[in-house]
Design brief:
The structure is a single chain. With about 350 residues, the chain is of the alpha/beta class. The chain has 2 domains: about 240 residues, Type I PLP-dependent aspartate aminotransferase-like (Major domain) (Aspartate Aminotransferase, domain 2, 3-Layer(aba) Sandwich), CATH 3.40.640; about 90 residues, Aspartate Aminotransferase, domain 1, CATH 3.90.1150. About 40% of the residues lie in helices and about 15% in strands. The protein has 15 helices and 13 strands. The strands form 3 sheets. The chain has a 7-stranded mixed beta sheet with strand order 2-8-7-6-5-3-4, sandwiched between helices. The protein has a 4-stranded antiparallel beta sheet with strand order 9-10-13-12, with helices on one face. Helix 1 crosses helix 11. The protein is globular and about 60 Å long.
């Protein structure tokens, strides 16, 4: 049976160029990264820092680990951090900020990731009040997963930074898919990163690497993050073997390839709208498409029925399904998916 896996861009496989890169490694290109001696990782970190526009970068095992070491580096136990209410850090990172970091979490509502800054001003704690945990760190997510891959524009990121400075906060950007934002907006990625004190971005999503993410910021921030990475078990040894994939992923040609994913998401959205179903098909800004059922449905039954037809997807709540396009999914796969999704949704008894 033909399988089209639209669950996430984390299911991507390395490109042929990435396999060629790893074949070129020999012992001279490997070392102990905990000691800072793996030349491949050092090259990747330097390349990432330059592209992102920060002083330094750190290779980490995952986006979750990258966000965690960033928070640990910029806030102290007992302090309060501000997270968007549908953010990945809040919903999908196992409460690590609280459990491991001892950080208080306060969530703010938003319009596709961007809050009403006048409203969240009311949430800022008085640092002089001995009864309250001081507000220390503000976080945002770009692109925003649960808002359908929505792009937070550079001017809005400037407002985040201005708000943070006004309230003596650090500003961390969960940029797991920041290159999707850059490509979709036809703007340099530095336009999205320059206002953040720290940023995490994933190699293992749209950039198609099998493992790994990067954290970037000032030299002082990265020194702290390196120590926290070690604390949470992320100190790897000859990890240049896996980091080498990232050297290809950060090439301009490979970043530009994200345009294909965005195009396929739009084709999928248009195709599903043309089926005439009683659903709302959101307009994708990048590579994530959300479909919301307007009637009460048995969402898990729909997910299983789609899987029976070879279409893999995730539900993100009781009424919504998320489809994610990525490397390895072509336009023919999209047309096939539209056909199969139509068969399932027209034939299933809700």
């Amino acid at each position: 049976m033909r399988i089209v896996d639209l669950r996430s861009d984390t299911v991507t496989k390395p490109s042929p160029e990435m396999w060629e890169m790893i074949k070129s490694l020999d012992n001279s290109k490997l070392g102990d990264d905990v000691l800072g001696e793996d030349p491949t990782i050092n090259e990747l970190e330097e390349k990432a820092a330059k592209i992102i526009g920060k002083e330094a970068a750190l290779y980490v095992t995952s986006g979750t680990q990258g966000n965690l070491v960033s928070m640990l580096s910029q806030a102290n136990p007992g302090e309060e951090i501000m997270l968007e209410e549908l953010s990945h850090i809040y919903k999908n990172e196992v409460g690590s900020a609280a459990r491991i970091g001892g950080l208080m979490i306060r969530t703010y509502p938003s319009n596709k990731g961007v809050p009403d800054f006048k409203e969240i001003q009311k949430m800022i704690r008085n640092k002089d009040n001995i009864h309250q945990p001081p507000s220390t760190l503000l976080c945002a997510e770009n692109t925003h997963n649960y808002h359908g891959g929505a792009v937070i524009k550079p001017e809005d990121l400037y407002n985040f930074k201005e708000f943070a400075e006004m309230n003596d906060l650090k500003f961390h950007l969960d940029g797991a898919r920041i290159f999707n934002a850059s490509v979709a907006s036809n703007l340099p990625v530095t336009e999205f990163t320059k206002h953040a004190d720290s940023i995490m971005f994933c190699l293992s999503k749209g950039l198609s690497c099998p493992v790994g993410s990067l954290v970037a910021g000032s030299q002082n921030f990265i020194s702290k993050a390196r120590k926290f990475r070690k604390m949470v078990g992320g100190g790897m040894r000859q990890a240049g073997i896996i980091a080498s994939f990232g050297l290809i992923a950060l090439e301009p040609k490979w970043i530009k390839r994200l345009e294909e994913d965005h195009k396929n998401a739009k084709i999928l959205a248009d195709g599903l709208r043309n089926l005439g179903l009683n659903v709302e098909v959101y307009s994708p800004e990048t590579n994530i498409l959300i479909v919301e059922f307007l009637d009460k449905v048995r969402i898990l039954k729909i997910i299983r029925s789609l899987a029976d037809e070879g279409i893999l997807a995730f539900n993100i709540d009781k009424q919504k399904i998320r489809f994610v396009t990525h490397y390895g999914i072509n336009e023919d796969d999209i047309q096939y998916s539209i056909e199969k999704i139509g068969i399932v949704l027209k034939g299933i008894s809700f």
